[in-house]
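README, section 4: Worked example with a bound small molecule

Sections 1 through 3 covered apo chains. Here we extend the same pipeline to holo records, where the ligand is supplied as SMILES alongside the sequence. The molecule in this example is 2-oxoglutaric acid. Nothing else about the input changes; the structure line simply encodes the ligand pose together with the chain.
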Amino acid sequence: MTDPALLNDLAHTLRQSHAPGYQLFERFADEQTCKDMLDDMVELARRAAAEGDAGGTLVAPEQQQDLNGEQPEDFVSKIFRVQRREPFLRFLQRDDVCHLLTAALGPDVDCFLSQFIFKNPGARGQPWHQDAFYFPFKPARPVVALWLAITEATLENGCLHILPGSQNEPVHTHVPDRRENANYGYVEIVDHDMSASQPCLLQTGDLLMFDSHLMHRSTDNVSNGIRAAMVWHFARAGTEDLGQDLGSGKRGGPSPVNDWMPLIRNGETL
Ligand SMILES: O=C(O)CCC(=O)C(=O)O
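The generated complex, written as structure tokens:
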């Protein structure tokens, strides 16, 4: 485990205006942990396809039509609401995850959203956005994400690109992803200069932590292999979810992908 004092310092600076708005923790998870997560999601995708039982999760199909594959998981974009499943919960219960989250958010933390991203060969990237656009919360901040590389992330297989310093921006206008067959919930910032963006080239097990206002995107997977990632989002306990379903474009109900799960109380993982 990384030194708790160091984790504390790194997570603490996440939102400071002079900081880049993100932090990379190399080799945070081991290969077996990443494999366990992928295996669990493959099994779930197959069961959901065969029996119609997604076990309380939400399976979003990849909308891009030119996909090659034989197994159900080859056609999945994301699976939401997975944080209560064993391999994911085990990760969230790590002491160093607790250190990171309490340093960034304080002693009482909920995990309110989780998504496993398959990003199969041919899958579309997610356009420039700020996660805060999807989170109509009171208070609106602090909210942070943990993005775990389940496989290597490269320029070819569609790694993340981030705009350092953009955590200082307000939430910008997001327009619907204009591409044909856009994936569930994809929207795009078109009123900001992204020319200073940087690609996040990651190894399996690398963890990226970032602020909900940080602008980021990912590109299409033009490689022959999968680029998988697991993403969790966290807010302070007691945060009010004002419940607009922005993902499906409907208004007035809670987002079907959110699942508020108490995780840390008084600095201790539950
Ligand atoms: O990993 C990706 O391809 C996109 C993920 C992303 O942008 C997000 O989780 O907000």
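What to look for in the output: Residues 117, 119, 125-126, 131, 158, 160, 216, 218, 229, 231 surround 2-oxoglutaric acid (CB under 6 Å). The longest strand covers residues 109-117.

Section 5 describes how to batch many such records.
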